[in-house]
Amino acid sequence: MKMLRKGRLGEKVDITFAEYTSSLEFDRKIFLFDILGSIAHAIMLVEAKIISKEDASKIINGLLEILDEGIEALDLDPRLEDIHMAIEKKLIEKAGEVGGKLHVARSRNDQVACDLRLWIREEINEVSKLVLKLIGALLKLCEDNVSTVMPGYTHLQRAQPTTLAHHFLSYVDMFIRDFHRLSQVYERTNKNPLGACALATTSFDISRELTTKLLGFSDVIENSMDAVSARDYMLELASCLAILMVNVSRICEELILWSSQEFNFVELSDELSSTSSIMPQKKNPDALEIMRARTSKVIGNLTSALSLIKALPQSYNRDFQELSPIVADSLEIANTSLSLLNKIISTIKINKEKMRRACDELILATDLADFLVIEEAIPFREAHRIVASSISAGNLSSLFELYKKKKGKALTPEEAIELRRVRGGPSSREVKRMLSARKETLAKLNAKLKKRMEKIEKSKENLIKKAKSYV
Predict the structure, then answer these.
(1) Which residues contact 253 (CB under 8 A, 6 or more apart)?
(2) Which residues contact 348 (CB under 8 A, 6 or more apart)?
(3) 8 Å CB contact between 145 and 163
């Protein structure tokens, strides 16, 4: 601790103060990225002739050893404040006083900004991968249920007939949008703040472009104050995760309802259900209920993150330290929820007969009104009144008889569904077309994500390879 404090504050530090202000509990998540950022910085310093090759060799070798030993080998005394100082302390133990040269032309402000962006971009990829897996599970469910007739609902009241495939394709499209939102955040995250130092760059002739290349960033964050203070990418991610979890919560709510005896549309796997300690007959959708509850936490995390940032002046403020655990919590909830929901969707049993029986004659009321408009050439509003009056009078059967007489066949939910051939409708032709298109989209998104992840891994490999060439 004395290596940081003694010049200005002396060597003593209150332990309560140290524990209160330390970020080491969260910093475990960025250990790897701090090492990678430091290696890139060291390579840049030697190639810019700011430090000698001999010094660079000692520094880089020490960093590689620390990486190999892992975080457990570090002194995580809270009086060291954070992972940056814990690593620097270990580096100086290994390389001697020359280890202190690593901090030339760098501040912890741009150092942590870099670590967080390296961490966040990989987290975005992980949650994106889980989103795509869930989309794949939903598409499989849709493929198996193109002809599974069920009621479509508005206001949770039976409205019009549709199919289970048509219904779940709506969630497929929601999650595709979630993937695109995450990809947009990735693009704004994948930029390099190194070289900004505390806020005003440095008088040393460094190359920000080199560290950008070494770390696989797409570009430099040009304005140095923006580089160290920008956390809007984390707010964006918190927002994307909140929207994603709201979509998860909506599908959970439906499955909770549908698995009840009142609906009995679906049955969850025994392995993914709970029971009661007193009621032997119970089979409870606990996981779905917990997902629904944890969505509230993710929404709350977004509110906390926005509130934390809203009144901070430029540029760096220690308040930022409290943002990272908030985002990490949302990521953990999203990742575990998506993983479990994928299992639930993949193993769910569909009660097709129950769904079909739920389509009573009232669900065809709109189709009868449309029929009257076409056959009797009357305004829709008048047709609407006639059908509504027939329902009130309990005489809807007369309209069904008229339909059969005019069309030569009975009006059924299946017939009504097949009449809806408009783009995006529930007819089997449209649903199959949408299924094919979404499968193609999924393949493209998987390829895009794979390329993105491979680029990151390649940049890591190249960085370590180049680092070893200096040892």
Answers:
(1) 288, 292
(2) 141, 255, 266, 267, 268, 269
(3) yes
> Strand pairing partners for 349?
267
Q: Which of 11, 30, 100, 29 is nearest to 59 (CA)?
A: 100
Instruction: Give the predicted TM-score (pTM) of the model.
Output: 0.95
Query: Which domains does the chain carry?
Result: 2-104 (1.10.275.10), 110-153+163-357+437-459 (1.20.200.10), 361-419 (no CATH)
Tokens of 254: 């439906």
Beta strand pairing call for 149-154 and 157-163: antiparallel
The answer on pLDDT for 10 being more than 90 is: no
Q: What are phi and psi of 251, to 5 degrees?
A: -70, -35
- Residue of 155, 203, 307, 392 marked active site: 155
d(CA 338, CA 327): 16
103 is catalytic: no
Whether the bond between 315 and the residue before it is cis, its omega within 30 degrees of 0, is yes
CA distances from 339 to 36, 287, 349, 388 (A): 29, 11, 18, 46
Q: Which of 260, 269, 276, 296 is catalytic?
A: 276
**Residue 155 a catalytic site member:** yes
Name residue 15's amino acid: I
pLDDT tens per residue, range 157-194: 999 999 999 999 999 999 999 999 999 999 999 999 99
What is the mean predicted confidence (pLDDT) over 349-377?
Answer: 97
